Input
Amino acid sequence: MFLRILKKDLKRKKTMNIILVLFVILATMFVSSGLNNVITVSNGTDYYLDKAGIGDYIVITRGENSIGALDDMLSTEKAVKDYRMENVVFGAQDNLSSSDGKKIVLKNMLLIQEYKDTGITYFGHDNEKLPDLQEGHCYITGSFFKKNDMKTGDKLYLEMENVKLELIIDGNGKDALLGSDFMGNTRILISSEDMNKLTSDEKINKYYLGQVCNIDTDDNEAVNSAVSKCSNVSFSDGRSTVKLGYVMDLIVAFITLILSVCLMIVSFVVLKFTITLSIVEEFREIGVMKAIGISNVKIRSLYLGKYLLLAIAGSAVGLIASFPFGKLLINSVSENMVLGNSYGKWPNIIGAVLVVVTIILFAYISTNKVKKVTPLDAIRSGQTGERYSKKTRLKLKNSKASVPSFMAVNDVLSSPKRYFTIVIAFAFCTLFVLILANTVNTMKSERLIGTFSSKADAYVDKISISIDCMVKDKEEILEYLDDTAADIEAMGYPCKAFMDFQYKYPIIADGKEYSISLSQGRNTTMDMYEITEGSIPQSKYEIAITKTVSDIMDVVIGDTVTIDYGTEKIDCTVVAYFESMNNLGKLIRIHEDAPTDPSYISSALQLQIIFTDNPSDEEIHNRIEKLKDYFKTDKIQTATEYQIECLSVVPTMEAVQYLLLAITLIVVILVTILMERSFVSDEKGDIAIMKAIGFKDRKIILWQVLRFGIVAFAAVILAGILSIPITHLCITPIFGMMGATHINYVIDPLKIFLLFPGIIVLLTVVVTFLTSLCTKSIKASDTASIE
Amino acid sequence: MAIIEAKNLCKTYVVDKRQNNVLKNINLKVSKGEMVAIMGPSGSGKSTLLYSISGMDRPTSGEVIFDSKDLTKLTEAELTDVRLDKMGFIFQQMFMMKNLTILDNIMLPAVESKKSNASRAEKQARAEELMRKLDIIEVADNDINEVSGGQLQRACIARSMMNSPEIIFADEPTGALNRQSSIEVMDELCKLNNEGTTIMMITHDSKVAARCSRVLYIVDGQIEGEYKTPKDLVNEKDRERALNNWLMDLGW
Output
């Protein structure tokens, strides 16, 4: 008997049941794949780094005499348990060209090295270790293929000083140490024969060599302290920093999880609404069942049975779909990493079971209403005549609006709980789109430039400039910068040229030694850099630190640290905090007068140019084009372009933003159809009576459309307003992991309050219109059959 | 003069590939100012006739002439206009919009109609006047579930009167009411009829039918008999007795 009732119910409410199943499918897809992906990605970073043989502490040396710079430390420091050393040649994109003469684009510095077993393990696209190389062949790591539209088998020309190599690319390798978006370095792995040719060049041997050392240790602090005494150190940090480099890859996975939770909440909200509505609608059946003596438990089990059936059907399909869907979502991450987890398909299955259990629990709570329906409801058509609060909120007599508009507003105000459900569902989905839009807008603006460098009009990224400047002393650098500015001024563009350098010196705080990069500008003034607290350093005795450094060294403004410049030890007072996403926030800013020496330079940042005649943005672009000829490089960027490149994740975030928008629109479509169908079914009597007294179809459709329009409008406005504080709340911690917490977000009102909300409201209106066309089938004569 | 005329009206429903002829060649004329009751056993086609003749439902064949127009030939939009401006409807179950007050429900057809240039305040005044006449003004601002069945049905009558229709169709207007409310509602309908409004209603109650000027008795989709209330019978009980006798002759 119950089965027959169930079968009839499933048939009678086909559309609503189908939409409910769709929600369950979507929720399961997201929860199952999200769960698996998060386990994979969060454990995956360690899994990948272990598999590749990344050490507990990594040191990169570079420049003249860099080979062997670590040898003493490695042999004497007791904390060093083992290490893997790779000799590399540092290059840049200018050293590479393709067979069709196309310029090669690289994000950061290029590392060329021999492919042999002594270093870390590199993996191919199939996640297997790369096979050995022949002379004239190479592997390339990172996102080189994607950025340069190249593939396996293509030819690549490497030209450095007097050496020219023609290399056939054997494949794209995965580099666990430098391959993350944040590290962003490309490596070319070549044969020992080709490496010999390269290092046989005297100039390369002298200036371009370096070493990458992976150290196994249980005492990072001791190694850090020992490394701080070594020269030529370009990078030194623990494995956690390498791991943090994959933070952006994790973001995609976490967004998927948040999305899953969001969709699950929306599904449950919709489910609650549907169950409640169907119980209210079926008061007569429930009342009759009660009148003939069927217990509450049995009546509830009828509904629970129905929802269990829908949940199992939906979850089964969702579970199957979660495997390819999860793979699709994680593709962007797995391109860069070797991922895996030891749980197999279990996270997906657990996710699906979780959805079924939650739906049933939810349905159980919602069917509590069955208890309230009495046999009298069946007899008195659901009206007990008792109500102690007024339902109607507005009065037509006081309104000047047309009947459809009045009824739309009045409906929303009369049943706020019912419409609040939709507002929350829509607002929730919209909110995520807007948060991501705010984040992407900020990343694409110039707002974060201060966390990478001081703001300039043009950033010249040319390896030869960096390498030349890294061996110059202060006066020589200043002279070079002045000469460059004079040359550019001669072209008619008055300007100032400057550069930032990073040094590695031992730093002592509270008796402990640290190896933290120091940043110093040349031809700059300290007021060109942003600080977040304190006062600008005025002399070599004052420094600014990041909050990250403050936490590492346990020093605050007013404390003193000692910097050992080799020639002299200077006690410096911390006078300011600043924010930097360089080195994930592990940076100290020193005054221009600090006695630095070129041999301690770990890296030279881009040559920066500020035009002193305040040209327009368009003029800056024109000038950059002219400067490309002068510097003989294509890589001259504006501040925005430079920031986007530094953040590297902007295109992924943009793609995720559109993915989110698409999913939101799907949710909006499904919720709208489901709700509108429910409303029409609930209001069949009202619609019939309106038709009977002379209302045309279009007026009834307009009433329905306006009502949903109001609700969608309220939802997007709510989401727009909430998006600003919630962006700060959710996204700032992510930037914080990279070293910046004072984020002045770019809120584009056009996008936040017009474009995205407009799309959502428009879609709601269109879908409501199409769904409400079903009211045409309700006739005036249906008044005869209204229950 | 006939205000509405049905010619060879047929209505057929197809259920499970079986034809069910609910109305079979009905011919009927209702004159202006008449008050006609339709009676008959359950399933005889009373409601189908009322809905077909009022343009709420489309007959399978035949004509319905109202205001010199064949309603069966009108589009849905044209029919809607006719219902709004020229017809009034009262239903047994007193259907009203759930989210509107009694007064707003009554005003609704007038607000929607473009028949007159009256302002909304004037329309409100008319609604209140009708409510006063029907003795329900005190529930004007109440929700529909805050009033009694009799008050609600009188509100439905007021709503049907808002646009001063030429004819009112009522489907068992007293069917859901107690005797006292029933009498009150019929008093109001008779008053309307006396003021010149044509009324056509379905009823199972011979007391109600006895107050009409003519009674049609339908059986199996056909008009089995027609009874004209003798004008000389002034006493209500006499009218009812005469009608009952006639009905019994027809097998009621």
Notes: Chain B touches chain A at residues 47, 51, 56-57, 76-77, 80-85, 87, 89, 91, 93, 95-101, 103-104, 107-109, 111-113, 120, 124, 127, 141, 143, 145-146, 159-160, 163, 171 (CB under 8 Å). The first strand of chain B starts at residue 2 and ends at 15. The mean pLDDT of chain B is 88.
